[in-house]
Amino acid sequence: MSGAVRLVFVLCLAQSLGMLGFATFPALMPGLMVEWQLSNTEAGIVNGAYFGGYMASVAILVLLTDRFDALWVFLSAAALSGAAQLGFALLADGFWSAVVLHTLMGIGLAGVYMPGLRVLTDRLEGPKQSRYIAFYTATFGIGSGLSFLFAGIAGDLLGWRWAFGLAAAGAWIAGLAVAATTRPLEARQAPAGHLLDVRPVLRSPPTMGYILGYAGHVWELFALRGWLVAYLTWVAAQEGGAPLWLAPTLVATVIGLVGVPASIVGNEIAMRAGRRRTIACVMLLSAVTALALGALAGAPYWLVCLVGLFYGIPLLADSASLTAGAVAAAPAGRRGATLALHSTLGFGAGFLGTTAVGVALDLAGGASETGWMVAFATMALGALFGPLILWRLGRRPAGQEASA
């Protein structure tokens, strides 16, 4: 195994292990809503707190990678992530404690996901970098999918506290694996300007097109991940429950895993057919599918699962292309600032999208056929925003490749 392949493999494996707690709350949310007497809005806020913590911290953590080796940020965040998940297992007992601890878990992810990508891109340059980025970002889907499965099994067998506690071990093992196999880089020269200066990125319309398109993508993606199990549980309940082989957490896992090859293949198509064009088509298809899935709230459970499985394809087929596009279009010397803004706006949109669905459900009268139609229409707004912003900001300066 070459050094490049080994590095990509270790980082992808570490990301999957470190994300075991990513969907623990969404996967166990129906039971916790009853135990803690949460409204849909409160459940949406707890869900969104994870992404709020990410949004609040990612800019600082990723911008630090322009001045220090991203490896140290990654390892520190992996330790924090595990501690926060263990804290949730031991201390969470209602709305406010869940919000605080879920926020800390999001801060841990902020120091792992994009700094992990920076660990990769700082060590693997060249024409294959876009493909390596695609593999790494696609692994986010593996981690989130396995998190649903892990939480469902652990929660059923051992209870929700054990589900969070065992996920903490995954974060610590991820940190140990990267520490044992990744060599630190030599000290780098810091770019001119203030640490938080993202003005060069804001002044680059092509870069901002990908960043804001990613924000629309994450609004839809995290809103679905936050509410998918609750939706499937509601649909199944209309028929008296789901069969074991179509348990909501298992279906959510498969939907997440379907997106992994979709993200990789989507990036390969984008490299050949044009990145902005491919992303726009995928996001429009994703929006249409979201609306269709919401309209099926009263349909047979098996049909909802089938359409949900298809939805997993366009939902993630644009993910790697959006991130690779932002990296390729980053102003010189501002890759860390670009990824910081990319993640801040993206996961900030994830916080808003997840919360907005809970609010939409409550405004529509709660979980019902109408309520879920409104909820999925709220998700689709992000996917519709992406093509619009790419068209508006996507015109590239002369001399840059059209496919970048």
Strand and helix layout:
Blueprint: H1 3-18, H2 24-36, H3 40-63, H4 70-91, H5 95-123, H6 129-158, H7 160-181, H8 199-202, H9 205-237, H10 248-273, H11 275-295, H12 301-317, H13 319-329, H14 335-363, H15 369-393
In short:
Helices cover 80% and strands 0% of the residues. By secondary structure, it is mostly helical.
Shape: globular
Q: Which structural class matches the secondary elements?
A: mainly alpha
Number of helices: 15
The sequence of SSEs as H and E is HHHHHHHHHHHHHHH
- Specify the oligomeric state: single chain
**CA-to-CA gap between the ends?**
29 Å
Reported by name, the CATH topology is Growth Hormone, Chain: A
Top-tier CATH class: Mainly Alpha
What report would you give on this structure?
With 404 residues, the protein is an all-alpha fold. The chain has a single domain, classed as Growth Hormone, Chain: A (Up-down Bundle), CATH 1.20.1250.20. The protein has 15 helices and no strands. Helix 3 runs antiparallel to helix 14 and helix 6 crosses helix 13. The longest helix has 33 residues. The C terminus is likely disordered.
